[in-house]
Design goal:
The structure holds 2 protein chains of 2 kinds. By secondary structure, chain A is mostly helical. Chain A has 6 helices and no strands. Chain A is elongated, with a radius of gyration of 22 Å. The model of chain A has no long low-confidence stretch (mean pLDDT 86). Chain B is an all-alpha fold. Chain B has 20 helices and 2 strands. In chain B, helix 6 packs across helix 9, helix 10 packs antiparallel against helix 14 and helix 17 packs antiparallel against helix 18. The relative contact order of chain B is 0.10. Classes of the chains: A mainly alpha, B mainly alpha. Chains A and B meet through helix 3 and helix 5 of A and helix 5 and helix 6 of B.
Chain lengths: 137, 499
Amino acid sequence: MIGWIAEHVFAKYNFWIATLIMLIGLYATIARGNLLKKLIGLSIFQTAIFLLFISLGDVGTMASWGLHSGTAPIVWTPGIQKGYIYANPVPHVLMLTGIVVSAATTAVALALVIRLYEEYGTIEEDEIAEKEKSTVE
Amino acid sequence: MLLIDQFPVIIVAGSALSAFTILLAGWFNRKSCFFISLSTIVFQFVLSLFVLHHVLTVGVIHYWIGGWRPPWGIEYLVDGLSAYVLVIVLFMSLMSVIYAKRTVEKQIAEKKHVTFYALFQLLVTGLVGVVVTGDMFNMYVLLEVCSLAAYALIAVAGGRALRASYNYLVIGSIGICFYLLGIAFLYSVTGTLNMADMRLLLPPLYGSKAVQTAFVFILIGLGIKMAFFPLHTWQPDAYTYAPSAVSVIISTAMAKASIYALIRVVFSVFTVNFIFQYMWMWTFISWLAAFTIIIGSVYAIAQWTLKRMLAYSSISQIGYIVLGMTLLGSHWGLEGGLMHLLNHCLMKGALFMAACAIIYKAGLWDIRDFEGLAKRMPYTSAAFLLAALSMIGIPPSVGFVTKVYLILGSLDAGQLVFVIVILASSLLNLVYFWRVIETMYMKGGKGVPEQKRDEAPLSILIPTVVLAALSIIVGILWLIGTPLPILKAAVSAMGVLGQ
């Protein structure tokens, strides 16, 4: 029992935590009626995915329960000669691009919320739906 | 490297540069933005024709960005399927931008024209990038580029379009994040992002839960992007309230690019062998597609707003393409699905253009107000009539050819229910298109004052009539068999022949 928990929960804690944060973000997006709260939920969801992806690049820490963990992947000849272990830089690079995309999405969404506020005077989704229903198309 | 090898990256990078040029030139001369955009898209379209010719005669085009070889670098890979969809996307972009000149002047405030054309060019950049790329993460980035441009372009119309765009943004971002999650799982088990490399590394891992989960996440993520029932809820509002030129391009080119992304990932990365291992899931998708075909048409019958009706009709047509993808028994199903990529663009493009021309000239959104429209706008009504007949499936139009191929594919797969579904959907299409045609042509005789000719201007009329005429001419061409080599090259690129 302890062995099963140690292998599937403690060793893979990054996946469990990332999934939990993803679910919190998705819940906020779906269940909250305020447009800004939906965006916060979306942002939490995307951040959790970035955390999951970056944690894939971790080399040598909990994976082997050893003392030597992957260090910053900067090529340095004496370091290679001493046998340093480097963390995988590719997930970091990919998620930098992902963070840029997420920031652009949040910027466009916030601009939309400003315009919606100018148009309808409220940022509650149900109030906007009421106003749209009352004005005949 | 030959010059032709550089064409895919010139098409994408040149388009991005042009978007920034439009922003800069807009400082000095606002009128020039349309012409910069138009000339860029014409240039891209001509290049794409050369690319298609090269792929059909010589072979696949490889381009390694920065000279870095795969699996370390990003690769642009143009094979039969990519070249085919590239020409379709750029042709529809060209028609949309010609259509955009007058409608943008009327619908959008003068000070927003510069940013409108810059965003339009960025949308085209994203679309062509999705089609030519051979790298999974690059496809995520370019899908987001075109989606962000689409969110902003839809919201330019103001009013109800703002809420439509916000909904599209939230749902679309969740979708593309699911796709990113799928890439995360695939990267964690294979260690590569290059599509061709992943195709070689995946077969021993087909049984692993990570690969299965990745497949489901990618399927749902891209399904949200292409508005596949039941993930379609953002689509009717977005198509209805968007500005006219944006309605045309997102309903044709952007939907096709998203479907291409799904086809590329499912058939070129997870090959047909993966699908055969989990055939029950693929059969479920085919039944869902058949259900989509019927339910899209039923929704469309309930609509009185013309643009909304066409939006729901698009959901039904996406079902045709996915049904074609899932019929793997013979080549008819797959060829029918791929053929419908082009056919639906022509038909739906003509329909949306006609509907928006009616809004531009007469200001009419509701079908019940169309009485006597055929006398006032004869050419637009004729284009709508031709495209509607094509959707219903009157020979020899493109709609008829698609339905024939899909019926033959269903018979080869042994599913008679799908034949009945396709025929029933033709009848349902007839119901909701006949309402519009009858009101336009046959009503408005008594009690309505004499209608004067008030036709839409040429820059709106010509793309509409061209697309409507093409929907008949291309249908005749498909039946004769002239463009079939393109389709054979596309299907063989998917790697299904020989199973």
